Amino acid sequence: MMKKTIQLQPAGKGTALAIQVVTRASRTELAEVLEDGTLRIRLNAPPVDGKANRALIDFLAGIFQVRESDIEIVAGEHSRKKIVTITGIEPELVEKIIAKAI
């Protein structure tokens, strides 16, 4: 099976990545890399009152060992498909961390 490439872009002093969230999952986890390079993340939070977005930011901060303030949803705040930037971490390191976690 061919390894899927994660869709990452340098963004200022960090990395931007495409994410698709699945809310109300049984647990919060990195699920898979989709064919187009989007990272699918399952969240154990409902998409109500920003709870899923807060859960996503908290989860990503833990995975990448950065502050929550270093993570920003720059597109798709009210959508399942989002673009997220992570300041202070290079795309190569993001890719390594994701590959190890999945």
Known CATH architecture: 2-Layer Sandwich
Give helix % range: 10-25%
**Rg, please?**
13 Å
- Could you state the order of secondary-structure elements as H and E? EEEEHEEH
How many helices in DSSP terms? 2
User: How many beta-strand runs?
Assistant: 6
CATH topology: Conserved Hypothetical Protein Mth637, Chain: A
Class inferred from helices and paired strands: alpha+beta
Please report which band the strand proportion falls in: under 5%, 5-15%, 15-25%, 25-35%, 35-45% or over 45%: 25-35%
Distance between the termini: 15 Å
Please mark out the parts with pLDDT under 50 across 5 or more consecutive residues, or reply none. none
- So, the CATH homologous superfamily? YggU-like
Number of domains: 1
Instruction: State the major sheet.
Output: 6 strands, mixed
Molecular shape:
globular
* Overall average residue pLDDT: 91
CATH class descriptor: Alpha Beta
